[in-house]
Amino acid sequence: MKISNNKLARITGLIYLGVVLTGIFTLMYMPSKLFGADTASLTYQQIASSQLLLRLGILSGLLCYTFFLFLPLALYKLLKQVNENYAKLMVLLALLSVPVYFLNVQNLFSILSVIINGQSKFGLSVEQAHSQVMLYIDQYNNGMRLVHIFSGLWLFPFGYLVYQSGILPKVLGVFLILGCFGYLINFVGNTLFSNYSQFGISSIINLPASIGEIGTCLWLLIRGAKNYKIAES
Fold it and tell me: What is the pTM of this model?
């Protein structure tokens, strides 16, 4: 059964909305509440007293990247008429982030294990338990930086397709392409400078990606898509 562009666009927008909402919770809200303390002991106490929030963050992250398995496939079907090679590249780069995230989330499970069983089952001292939790948080953050390489790279072919499609505002395509470079700049910055997060520019650099992705999501969900008017290259 053939699905109209308009219906396909709204289905894609709905999947994208799932990615956005679960992503905001697991990648922004949960870490800001649990991982932002200044000391290892305070961080441990925050997590120990809010285990449900960490569990919800884990579930939300797994759900986010499950949605993200289907999102590039839906976008491929919607945008392949623009340029099939770019559409295939978009899918490939997007899907590469999924197994990396699923492997990385093991660090969050390990945090739970230390919180619950660190002293009683594993024989860790209080200080050792605190150190282990901080180590797993650090490993999780490093893993997310690797995930964000592909979170950025897929935005370049995606932005190009949006820009050329004629079914979405060109400005969204520009923001998506800028978002690609923003992710990569932040990755390089975090790799080269241990205090990069203290510069206070990472969230500003990521702003075009947020505008492009949320804007595209809402446009597809609310406006849909009717006919292609592919721009001249």
Answer: 0.89
